[in-house]
Amino acid sequence: MTDLSIYHEKILNLASFNKESNEIIDFHSSCELKNPMCGDQVNVKIFVDQGLIKNISAKVRGCALCEASAGLVVKIFKDKHVPIINFLNEFRHWLNDENSEITSYMPNELEVFLPIKTIKNRHTCVIMPFEAIIKTLDELKMLK
User: Fold this and answer.
1) 85-127: pLDDT as tens digits
2) How far apart are CA 24 and CA 95, in angstroms?
3) Looking at the domain 9-139, which fold is it?
4) How far apart are CA 12 and CA 34, in angstroms?
5) How many other C-beta atoms are found inside a 10 Å radius of the C-beta of residue 112?
6) 79 CB-contact burial (10 Å; exposed 0-12 / middle 13-18 / buried 19+)
7) Residue ranges per structural domain of the chain
8) Residue environment code for 17-32, b if the CB has 16+ CB neighbours within 10 A, otherwise e
9) Residue 48's beta-bridge partner residues?
10) Which of 46, 77, 78, 111 has its CA 20 to 30 A from that of 53?
11) pTM for the structure as a whole
């Protein structure tokens, strides 16, 4: 597969990483989201201690893109401080605008989704796990 394929090696590796990860049972908050268009489901659970996301799981029933995105959510946010509230807006803007670049709010690892930028009907698959963690943190009143 080429890097321009939506199911390139990095996507498949992230999806595999997430499928093999364990769902946490000790958590402060969770959020389950469903995509009515394709049937993808994601359930994010987090355990937070003194502003750090100490543990996180993002279980998916859906496509490899959603699974890969969930895997990236786990890798990006585990053992990290709570993300700023603009993160999701910046990510959406980057994904929707073919000419935009990764901003300082966003980790460079998001570039794995570069081939999806032109495939608008797959954006929800990629964004949904990130929406779930933001909603989970918002429920805890922890967004900066």
Assistant:
1) 678 888 999 999 988 888 877 888 999 999 999 999 999 999 9
2) 29
3) Sufe protein. Chain: A (3.90.1010)
4) 21
5) 20
6) exposed
7) 9-139
8) bbeebeebeebbbbbe
9) 53
10) 111
11) 0.89
Q: How big is the chain, counted in residues?
A: 144
Return d(Cα 131, Cα 126) in angstroms, integer: 10
Q: Is 8 helix (H, G, I), strand (E, B) or coil?
A: coil
Token pair 């990764």 in the structure block, residue:
102
Q: Are 67 and 18 in contact (CB under 8 A)?
A: yes
Q: Is 123 exposed, middle or buried (0-12, 13-18, 19+ CB in 10 A)?
A: middle
Q: Splitting the chain (144 residues) into consecutive groups of 10 residues, what average pLDDT does each group show?
A: 68 91 94 93 95 94 95 92 77 90 84 91 94 90 68
